[in-house]
Sequence to fold (316 residues):
Amino acid sequence: MEQKFTQEELEERFQNKIDKDIRIEPNDWMPDAYRKTLVRQISQHAHSEIVGMLPEGNWITRAPNLRRKAVLLAKVQDEAGHGLYLYSAVETLGADREETIDDLHTGKAKYSSIFNYPTVSWADMGAIGWLVDGAAIMNQVPLCRCSYGPYARAMVRVCKEESFHQRQGFEIMATLANGTPEQKEMAQDALNRFWWPSLMMFGPNDDESPNSAQSMKWKIKRFSNDELRQMFVDATVPQAELIGLTVPDKDIKFNKETGHYDFGEINWDEFWDVVKGNGPCNEDRVNTRRVAKENGEWVREAATAYAEKKRLKVAG
Ligand code: BYC
Fold:
Protein backbone atom coordinates (compact mmCIF):
# COMPACT_ATOMS: atom_id res chain seq x y z
CA MET A 1 0.00 0.00 0.00
CA GLU A 2 1.33 3.45 -0.91
CA GLN A 3 2.27 5.45 2.16
CA LYS A 4 1.30 9.13 2.29
CA PHE A 5 3.53 11.61 4.08
CA THR A 6 2.94 15.22 4.97
CA GLN A 7 5.32 17.86 3.61
CA GLU A 8 6.95 18.10 7.03
CA GLU A 9 7.49 14.35 7.23
CA LEU A 10 8.96 14.30 3.74
CA GLU A 11 11.37 17.08 4.65
CA GLU A 12 12.37 15.31 7.85
CA ARG A 13 13.01 12.03 6.02
CA PHE A 14 15.02 13.93 3.41
CA GLN A 15 17.20 15.66 6.01
CA ASN A 16 17.68 12.34 7.82
CA LYS A 17 19.05 10.83 4.63
CA ILE A 18 21.42 13.76 4.21
CA ASP A 19 22.55 13.49 7.84
CA LYS A 20 23.31 9.79 7.27
CA ASP A 21 25.29 10.64 4.11
CA ILE A 22 22.85 8.79 1.87
CA ARG A 23 23.03 10.25 -1.63
CA ILE A 24 20.01 11.95 -3.16
CA GLU A 25 19.29 10.66 -6.67
CA PRO A 26 17.22 12.30 -9.45
CA ASN A 27 14.00 10.35 -8.81
CA ASP A 28 14.09 10.77 -5.02
CA TRP A 29 11.81 13.25 -3.33
CA MET A 30 13.60 16.55 -2.60
CA PRO A 31 12.45 19.96 -1.35
CA ASP A 32 11.92 22.52 -4.13
CA ALA A 33 14.51 24.81 -2.57
CA TYR A 34 17.15 22.03 -2.66
CA ARG A 35 16.41 21.43 -6.35
CA LYS A 36 16.54 25.17 -7.06
CA THR A 37 19.84 25.63 -5.25
CA LEU A 38 21.39 22.76 -7.18
CA VAL A 39 20.11 24.02 -10.53
CA ARG A 40 21.56 27.43 -9.68
CA GLN A 41 24.97 26.18 -8.56
CA ILE A 42 25.44 23.40 -11.14
CA SER A 43 24.34 25.59 -14.08
CA GLN A 44 26.66 28.40 -12.93
CA HIS A 45 29.39 25.80 -12.63
CA ALA A 46 28.69 24.54 -16.17
CA HIS A 47 28.75 28.09 -17.56
CA SER A 48 32.05 28.71 -15.78
CA GLU A 49 33.62 25.70 -17.48
CA ILE A 50 32.42 26.83 -20.92
CA VAL A 51 33.21 30.54 -20.55
CA GLY A 52 36.45 29.45 -18.89
CA MET A 53 37.60 27.99 -22.22
CA LEU A 54 37.84 31.48 -23.72
CA PRO A 55 40.78 33.10 -21.87
CA GLU A 56 42.99 30.06 -22.57
CA GLY A 57 41.56 29.37 -26.04
CA ASN A 58 42.92 32.81 -26.86
CA TRP A 59 46.50 31.42 -26.60
CA ILE A 60 46.25 28.07 -28.43
CA THR A 61 47.53 29.50 -31.72
CA ARG A 62 50.28 31.41 -29.92
CA ALA A 63 51.67 28.68 -27.64
CA PRO A 64 55.49 28.82 -27.75
CA ASN A 65 56.00 25.27 -29.09
CA LEU A 66 54.16 22.17 -30.28
CA ARG A 67 54.24 20.45 -26.89
CA ARG A 68 52.73 23.46 -25.13
CA LYS A 69 50.14 23.81 -27.89
CA ALA A 70 49.06 20.15 -27.67
CA VAL A 71 48.80 20.30 -23.88
CA LEU A 72 46.83 23.56 -23.88
CA LEU A 73 44.50 22.26 -26.57
CA ALA A 74 43.82 19.13 -24.51
CA LYS A 75 43.22 21.20 -21.38
CA VAL A 76 40.73 23.53 -23.05
CA GLN A 77 38.98 20.50 -24.52
CA ASP A 78 38.73 18.98 -21.02
CA GLU A 79 36.93 22.12 -19.84
CA ALA A 80 34.34 21.63 -22.62
CA GLY A 81 33.82 18.08 -21.35
CA HIS A 82 33.31 19.35 -17.79
CA GLY A 83 30.68 21.77 -19.05
CA LEU A 84 28.87 18.93 -20.80
CA TYR A 85 28.81 16.65 -17.74
CA LEU A 86 27.50 19.54 -15.68
CA TYR A 87 24.76 20.53 -18.14
CA SER A 88 23.71 16.85 -18.09
CA ALA A 89 23.67 16.92 -14.28
CA VAL A 90 21.39 19.99 -14.39
CA GLU A 91 19.04 18.12 -16.72
CA THR A 92 18.65 15.33 -14.14
CA LEU A 93 16.97 17.98 -11.95
CA GLY A 94 14.36 18.68 -14.62
CA ALA A 95 15.97 21.89 -15.90
CA ASP A 96 15.97 22.60 -19.63
CA ARG A 97 19.52 22.77 -21.00
CA GLU A 98 18.73 25.28 -23.74
CA GLU A 99 16.95 27.62 -21.32
CA THR A 100 19.91 27.39 -18.98
CA ILE A 101 22.30 28.34 -21.77
CA ASP A 102 20.01 31.16 -22.89
CA ASP A 103 20.17 32.55 -19.35
CA LEU A 104 23.93 32.80 -19.77
CA HIS A 105 23.56 34.52 -23.12
CA THR A 106 21.07 37.11 -21.87
CA GLY A 107 23.25 37.94 -18.86
CA LYS A 108 20.74 36.48 -16.38
CA ALA A 109 22.97 33.64 -15.17
CA LYS A 110 26.20 34.06 -13.26
CA TYR A 111 29.50 32.31 -13.96
CA SER A 112 32.81 32.48 -12.12
CA SER A 113 34.15 36.04 -11.86
CA ILE A 114 37.69 34.88 -12.68
CA PHE A 115 36.96 34.44 -16.39
CA ASN A 116 36.24 38.14 -16.85
CA TYR A 117 39.92 39.04 -16.70
CA PRO A 118 42.02 39.22 -19.87
CA THR A 119 44.92 36.91 -20.72
CA VAL A 120 47.64 39.21 -22.00
CA SER A 121 50.78 37.06 -21.95
CA TRP A 122 51.83 33.42 -22.30
CA ALA A 123 52.58 33.37 -18.56
CA ASP A 124 48.85 33.83 -17.97
CA MET A 125 48.41 30.23 -19.17
CA GLY A 126 50.71 29.17 -16.35
CA ALA A 127 48.93 31.39 -13.81
CA ILE A 128 45.50 30.09 -14.82
CA GLY A 129 46.49 26.43 -14.62
CA TRP A 130 48.33 26.88 -11.33
CA LEU A 131 46.01 29.31 -9.54
CA VAL A 132 42.59 29.08 -11.21
CA ASP A 133 42.57 25.30 -11.62
CA GLY A 134 44.26 25.07 -8.21
CA ALA A 135 41.42 27.05 -6.62
CA ALA A 136 38.87 25.04 -8.59
CA ILE A 137 40.28 21.75 -7.22
CA MET A 138 40.18 23.05 -3.65
CA ASN A 139 36.48 23.82 -4.16
CA GLN A 140 35.62 20.73 -6.22
CA VAL A 141 37.27 17.91 -4.25
CA PRO A 142 34.71 18.38 -1.43
CA LEU A 143 31.97 18.52 -4.11
CA CYS A 144 32.82 14.85 -4.87
CA ARG A 145 31.06 14.22 -1.52
CA CYS A 146 28.12 16.51 -2.33
CA SER A 147 24.75 15.06 -1.30
CA TYR A 148 23.38 15.06 -4.88
CA GLY A 149 24.60 11.92 -6.67
CA PRO A 150 24.95 13.10 -10.30
CA TYR A 151 26.86 16.26 -9.28
CA ALA A 152 29.15 14.35 -6.92
CA ARG A 153 29.94 11.68 -9.52
CA ALA A 154 30.65 14.23 -12.25
CA MET A 155 33.15 15.89 -9.94
CA VAL A 156 35.30 12.75 -9.57
CA ARG A 157 36.51 12.84 -13.15
CA VAL A 158 36.57 16.64 -13.27
CA CYS A 159 38.93 16.72 -10.27
CA LYS A 160 41.30 14.18 -11.84
CA GLU A 161 41.52 16.35 -14.94
CA GLU A 162 41.84 19.59 -12.96
CA SER A 163 44.73 18.07 -11.11
CA PHE A 164 46.58 17.57 -14.40
CA HIS A 165 45.67 21.15 -15.38
CA GLN A 166 47.07 22.54 -12.14
CA ARG A 167 50.35 20.70 -12.61
CA GLN A 168 50.75 21.83 -16.21
CA GLY A 169 50.16 25.43 -15.11
CA PHE A 170 52.66 25.17 -12.28
CA GLU A 171 55.20 23.65 -14.67
CA ILE A 172 54.80 26.59 -17.08
CA MET A 173 55.30 29.02 -14.18
CA ALA A 174 58.32 27.12 -12.80
CA THR A 175 59.93 27.06 -16.27
CA LEU A 176 59.40 30.81 -16.77
CA ALA A 177 60.49 31.65 -13.23
CA ASN A 178 63.76 29.77 -13.83
CA GLY A 179 64.25 31.26 -17.30
CA THR A 180 65.62 34.63 -18.46
CA PRO A 181 64.98 37.75 -16.33
CA GLU A 182 62.28 38.78 -18.85
CA GLN A 183 60.56 35.40 -18.53
CA LYS A 184 60.67 35.58 -14.74
CA GLU A 185 59.20 39.09 -14.88
CA MET A 186 56.41 37.85 -17.13
CA ALA A 187 55.60 35.05 -14.63
CA GLN A 188 55.62 37.50 -11.71
CA ASP A 189 53.35 39.89 -13.60
CA ALA A 190 50.85 37.07 -14.29
CA LEU A 191 50.89 36.09 -10.60
CA ASN A 192 50.33 39.75 -9.64
CA ARG A 193 47.26 40.00 -11.86
CA PHE A 194 45.69 36.58 -11.13
CA TRP A 195 46.35 36.23 -7.37
CA TRP A 196 43.50 38.35 -6.01
CA PRO A 197 40.88 37.30 -8.60
CA SER A 198 41.76 33.66 -7.74
CA LEU A 199 40.99 34.30 -4.06
CA MET A 200 37.67 35.83 -5.15
CA MET A 201 36.69 32.55 -6.86
CA PHE A 202 35.71 31.14 -3.44
CA GLY A 203 32.91 33.71 -3.14
CA PRO A 204 32.12 36.31 -0.48
CA ASN A 205 33.21 36.01 3.15
CA ASP A 206 31.06 33.57 5.14
CA ASP A 207 29.12 36.32 6.91
CA GLU A 208 28.25 37.84 3.50
CA SER A 209 27.33 34.53 1.84
CA PRO A 210 23.53 34.18 1.79
CA ASN A 211 23.50 30.60 0.45
CA SER A 212 26.21 28.97 2.57
CA ALA A 213 24.37 28.01 5.77
CA GLN A 214 21.58 26.14 3.97
CA SER A 215 23.95 24.56 1.44
CA MET A 216 26.14 23.27 4.27
CA LYS A 217 23.09 21.84 6.07
CA TRP A 218 22.14 20.03 2.86
CA LYS A 219 25.77 18.93 2.39
CA ILE A 220 25.95 20.49 -1.04
CA LYS A 221 28.84 22.47 0.39
CA ARG A 222 31.14 20.64 2.81
CA PHE A 223 33.38 23.60 3.64
CA SER A 224 32.60 27.30 3.82
CA ASN A 225 33.93 29.88 1.33
CA ASP A 226 36.46 31.21 3.87
CA GLU A 227 37.65 27.74 4.91
CA LEU A 228 38.37 26.80 1.29
CA ARG A 229 40.05 30.13 0.57
CA GLN A 230 42.34 29.62 3.57
CA MET A 231 43.22 26.08 2.40
CA PHE A 232 44.11 27.51 -1.00
CA VAL A 233 46.35 30.24 0.43
CA ASP A 234 48.06 27.73 2.73
CA ALA A 235 48.77 25.36 -0.18
CA THR A 236 49.80 28.00 -2.73
CA VAL A 237 52.08 30.44 -0.89
CA PRO A 238 54.82 27.81 -0.36
CA GLN A 239 54.55 26.84 -4.05
CA ALA A 240 55.22 30.46 -5.06
CA GLU A 241 58.21 30.55 -2.72
CA LEU A 242 59.53 27.31 -4.19
CA ILE A 243 59.76 28.83 -7.68
CA GLY A 244 61.06 32.18 -6.47
CA LEU A 245 57.92 34.27 -7.10
CA THR A 246 56.26 36.66 -4.66
CA VAL A 247 52.58 36.67 -3.84
CA PRO A 248 51.38 40.28 -4.29
CA ASP A 249 50.14 40.77 -0.73
CA LYS A 250 52.26 42.60 1.84
CA ASP A 251 50.15 41.11 4.65
CA ILE A 252 50.93 37.48 3.82
CA LYS A 253 52.58 35.99 6.86
CA PHE A 254 52.68 32.52 8.38
CA ASN A 255 50.91 32.61 11.73
CA LYS A 256 52.55 30.08 14.08
CA GLU A 257 49.64 30.20 16.49
CA THR A 258 46.94 29.30 13.97
CA GLY A 259 49.19 27.24 11.70
CA HIS A 260 47.84 29.19 8.70
CA TYR A 261 48.90 32.11 6.54
CA ASP A 262 47.33 35.45 7.42
CA PHE A 263 46.50 37.44 4.32
CA GLY A 264 45.26 40.90 3.32
CA GLU A 265 41.76 42.16 2.66
CA ILE A 266 40.17 41.25 -0.69
CA ASN A 267 38.79 44.14 -2.74
CA TRP A 268 35.11 43.17 -2.45
CA ASP A 269 33.97 46.21 -4.45
CA GLU A 270 35.93 44.88 -7.40
CA PHE A 271 34.48 41.38 -6.85
CA TRP A 272 30.84 42.53 -6.84
CA ASP A 273 31.46 44.83 -9.77
CA VAL A 274 32.76 41.90 -11.83
CA VAL A 275 29.92 39.61 -10.66
CA LYS A 276 27.40 42.25 -11.71
CA GLY A 277 28.80 42.25 -15.25
CA ASN A 278 31.22 45.18 -15.16
CA GLY A 279 34.55 43.35 -15.24
CA PRO A 280 37.09 44.01 -18.00
CA CYS A 281 35.85 41.17 -20.24
CA ASN A 282 32.24 40.36 -19.16
CA GLU A 283 30.62 41.76 -22.28
CA ASP A 284 33.15 40.19 -24.60
CA ARG A 285 32.85 36.74 -22.99
CA VAL A 286 29.05 36.60 -23.14
CA ASN A 287 28.98 37.97 -26.70
CA THR A 288 31.51 35.37 -27.84
CA ARG A 289 29.36 32.56 -26.46
CA ARG A 290 26.18 34.02 -27.98
CA VAL A 291 27.75 34.41 -31.42
CA ALA A 292 29.20 30.86 -31.19
CA LYS A 293 25.69 29.50 -30.63
CA GLU A 294 24.30 31.49 -33.55
CA ASN A 295 27.13 30.37 -35.84
CA GLY A 296 26.56 26.75 -34.89
CA GLU A 297 22.88 26.84 -35.78
CA TRP A 298 23.42 25.24 -39.22
CA VAL A 299 25.42 22.37 -37.67
CA ARG A 300 22.60 21.60 -35.22
CA GLU A 301 20.03 21.82 -38.02
CA ALA A 302 22.07 19.47 -40.23
CA ALA A 303 22.59 16.98 -37.39
CA THR A 304 18.87 16.99 -36.58
CA ALA A 305 17.94 16.51 -40.25
CA TYR A 306 20.40 13.62 -40.55
CA ALA A 307 19.03 11.95 -37.41
CA GLU A 308 15.50 12.32 -38.75
CA LYS A 309 16.50 10.83 -42.11
CA LYS A 310 18.09 7.87 -40.35
CA ARG A 311 15.03 7.39 -38.15
CA LEU A 312 12.72 7.32 -41.18
CA LYS A 313 15.00 4.82 -42.95
CA VAL A 314 14.90 2.45 -39.96
CA ALA A 315 11.14 2.89 -39.56
CA GLY A 316 10.43 2.53 -43.27
N1 BYC B 1 31.89 34.49 -9.31
O1 BYC B 1 26.09 32.71 -1.12
P1 BYC B 1 27.30 32.54 -1.97
C1 BYC B 1 37.10 25.96 -13.74
C2 BYC B 1 27.73 34.49 -6.33
S1 BYC B 1 35.47 26.47 -13.64
C3 BYC B 1 30.61 34.80 -9.64
O2 BYC B 1 28.58 32.23 -1.29
P2 BYC B 1 27.24 29.84 -3.08
C4 BYC B 1 37.90 26.25 -14.92
C5 BYC B 1 26.88 33.27 -5.98
O3 BYC B 1 26.56 32.54 -7.13
C6 BYC B 1 34.95 26.00 -12.04
N2 BYC B 1 29.59 34.73 -8.74
O4 BYC B 1 26.97 31.42 -3.09
C7 BYC B 1 37.29 26.36 -16.16
C8 BYC B 1 25.69 33.93 -5.31
O5 BYC B 1 24.82 34.49 -6.29
P3 BYC B 1 23.33 33.87 -6.59
C9 BYC B 1 34.25 27.05 -11.31
C10 BYC B 1 29.91 34.32 -7.50
O6 BYC B 1 26.65 29.29 -4.32
C11 BYC B 1 38.05 26.72 -17.26
C12 BYC B 1 26.29 35.11 -4.60
O7 BYC B 1 27.52 35.39 -5.25
N3 BYC B 1 33.82 26.52 -10.04
O8 BYC B 1 37.55 25.37 -12.83
O9 BYC B 1 26.83 29.22 -1.80
C13 BYC B 1 39.41 26.96 -17.14
C14 BYC B 1 26.54 34.85 -3.12
O10 BYC B 1 27.52 33.82 -2.91
C15 BYC B 1 31.20 33.97 -7.11
C16 BYC B 1 32.53 26.52 -9.65
O11 BYC B 1 31.66 26.98 -10.33
C17 BYC B 1 32.23 34.07 -8.08
N4 BYC B 1 33.51 33.77 -7.80
O12 BYC B 1 28.85 29.73 -3.15
C18 BYC B 1 40.02 26.83 -15.91
C19 BYC B 1 32.25 25.87 -8.31
N5 BYC B 1 31.19 33.61 -5.81
O13 BYC B 1 23.56 32.59 -7.35
C20 BYC B 1 39.27 26.46 -14.78
C21 BYC B 1 30.81 25.61 -8.01
C22 BYC B 1 29.92 33.74 -5.39
O14 BYC B 1 22.68 33.62 -5.26
N6 BYC B 1 30.21 26.65 -7.23
N7 BYC B 1 29.15 34.18 -6.40
O15 BYC B 1 22.66 34.92 -7.43
C23 BYC B 1 30.38 26.80 -5.89
O16 BYC B 1 31.09 26.05 -5.26
C24 BYC B 1 29.61 27.89 -5.21
O17 BYC B 1 28.52 28.27 -6.04
C25 BYC B 1 30.48 29.13 -4.85
C26 BYC B 1 29.57 30.22 -4.26
C27 BYC B 1 31.52 28.74 -3.80
C28 BYC B 1 31.17 29.71 -6.08
Q: What stands out?
A: The pocket of benzoyl coenzyme A is lined by residues 40-41, 44-45, 48-49, 52, 79, 110, 112-113, 128, 132-133, 136, 139, 200-204, 209-212, 215, 225, 275 (CB under 6 Å). The chain has 13 helices and two strands. The chain has a mean pLDDT of 97.
